[in-house]
Amino acid sequence: MELQRYHLAGQAQFDGTTGSWAPGGDAGWTVKTVIRDPHRLEARVTLGEVLATGYSLVVTPQAHREAIHATYHGLDAQGFHVVLTARDGSLEDRVGFSFRLDGLTDTPTPDDRTLVKDHLVEDIHVVQSILAKKAQSGMITVMCSASINQDRVTEGRIARQREDLDRLYKELEQTQDPELRREIEAKITVGRRKMVRYEKLMRAAHYWDSAHEFGKLWGAYYAERQKSELGGRDVPICTGGGPGIMQAVANGAASQRAIVLGIDAIFGNEPRFALGPQHQHALDSNVRIRCNDFAIREAALINYANVVLFWPGGLGTSWEAFETLCKIQTGHLRRRRTKAIFVHTEFWRPLYDYVKHLREIGTVNAYGDRIKFPGLDDADADDAYVGEVVDSAQEAFEAARAFVERLHAENALSLY
């Protein structure tokens, strides 16, 4: 566990006429009244960053310090309580407190608004150095969900979640304390939401199987035929290096003794190098790059790919899809050297409809900025489309392979 120092300083003014607090100082905390009477005001300060250890807290009253006494209690990883009392008589309508908290946290939230020059340069250098050795002729990248898993994995999560809910229901039956009951009921609500999501992900497990099949197809092509068919060149497969469908692709390709590239980024409290048991998915990528900056990671996955394939995913996959389409549209990636393929028509139909909507509004080109979709829009030349949709792993493999072989025939198969 990698601990980081955590400092937080703030102040809060209470307005007795409105019953509201006005917090100030550092961001990353909230304050809420717990008890209010003429002689005592108690508030709960909740931290945005959970502490691990090393708590140190100082609380002082603001304004009329000689008349107000400030103490705290209940300091824990999530926050603390502040109690303001009048030394003599009643509290005034306007009272307040200030505090300084020091501790250690193992869940540092990255400040993504800060661009660190050294991190950007380091990421670009590492990506280019490794790809120049392992993907000299370019690569194909698969973008996809980190949440959709093999059915047996999701079945296990559903079973564990059901056990947790059963335990919470029993605790609720045996608990009379109103506050504890509210806490248990809140946990049950969260558990039910998780169960609903896991059940949805279970219905999407066939996308994991499809991606695993594609990984095996491309892995076998890489290991057995590429060098002979591409004049001694090879084009490895690359993913975002994560779990879910990314792992399905990597595992499928690795099972065929193929090179598998994984380019990921540091998320939240993850250490950069000391990966733990929760990173078992990393083992399926035998060449791995971990970036400091999320945007550089995305650019590396897209910019150096001859073909970018999209399996079903969430907001991250959608971001990657639109970044790829925009780069092809604007010429940052040349259409004749980059292909975007979306796999599974039923999942990507809303994307087709949305791009069609943009064409009808006029915000994208009516001819050249289209998604090629079987049976709906597939009759024009390739320059009419920024991407195309296919319906299966086999179709995706055939389309990607044909494009790579065409680039080879045109002497255009390269990393840069």
From TrEMBL:
Q: Which Pfam families does its entry note?
A: Lysine_decarbox
- Family matches, as Gene3D superfamilies: 3.40.50.450
Species whose genome carries this gene = Sulfidibacter corallicola
Broadest EC class assigned to this enzyme:
hydrolase
Protein's recorded name? AMP nucleosidase
Task: Give the catalytic activity.
Answer: AMP + H2O = D-ribose 5-phosphate + adenine
* E.C. number: 3.2.2.4
GO CC annotations, alphabetized: cytosol
Which terms in the Gene Ontology molecular function aspect does this entry carry? Answer: AMP nucleosidase activity
